[in-house]
Amino acid sequence: MLDVGCGAGAVLARLRRAGIDAQGLDDRASAAAARALGLTASTGDATALPCADGSFDVVAMRHVPHHLADPRSAFAEAARVACQALVLAEPWFDESIPSQRLALEVDLLVKRLHERRGRVHRPNLSPEQLASLLPAGWSMTRTERWFRLAPRPLAELDAECLPELDAVGTVADRAAYRRLRERIARDGWSRNGSCAVVVGPT
Q1: What is the pLDDT, as a whole number, of residue 113?
Q2: What is the reported pLDDT for 175?
């Protein structure tokens, strides 16, 4: 398995414990952190994977698609490298729960600020949006969502938002943050779940 956007190797470590041969790919700092744990990780670009055609059974992108400037090209590359399946996962919020609706509002505010600072941090892609970006000959075979309602402390809101607001926040951004903070202090906010689609060749 190839884990594109492996970060510091949390998923790679779990795969290794399960006896799965897995490698990761990310930016230089993240790949180095994964290698420091004894994991196999390299540096590369999701739109130009340094791998031969069909060299992995599965290519995974966990919470990566919304960070991609060109997801269509990245999915085409993943399909070139995978011979059996792609697993594409994105953060997911259960909007029927008030604390999750607030968490989604925070997520979108932070992403707007990140984009203003030059990062690629787009709204999360739905399964339908992911499917629309797949290369010819590949289609979704399964969609799964999982979620554990986990409250987040208010201090995490400040830690996540205030540095971005200090760097690039406008008066309107700060007003939106204050309103969100008041509502979260009253109703709480919670961690996102995940939505994953499994994609296979047709």
Answers
A1: 98
A2: 98
SS (H, E, C) the chain: CEEECCCCCHHHHHHHHCCCCCEEEECHHHHHHHHHCCCCEEECECCECCCCCCCEEEEEEECCHHHCCCHHHHHHHHHHHEEEEEEEEEEECCCCCHHHHHHHHHHHHHHHHHHHCCCCCCCCCCHHHHHHCCCCCEEEEEEEEECCCCEECHHHHHHHHHHHHHHHCCHHHHHHHHHHHHHHHHHCEECCEEEEEEEEEC
- How many domains are contained in the chain? 1
User: In this structure, is residue 27 part of a structural domain?
Assistant: no
Q: Are 62 and 37 in contact (CB under 8 A)?
A: no
Specify if 38 maps to a domain.
no
**CATH number of the domain enclosing 127:** 3.40.50.150
Q: What is the pLDDT of residues 88-147, one digit of tens each?
A: 999 999 999 999 999 999 999 999 999 999 999 999 999 999 999 999 999 999 999 999
Below-50 pLDDT ranges, the chain: none
Dist. CA 81–CA 59, nearest whole Å: 7
pLDDT confidence of residue 158: 97
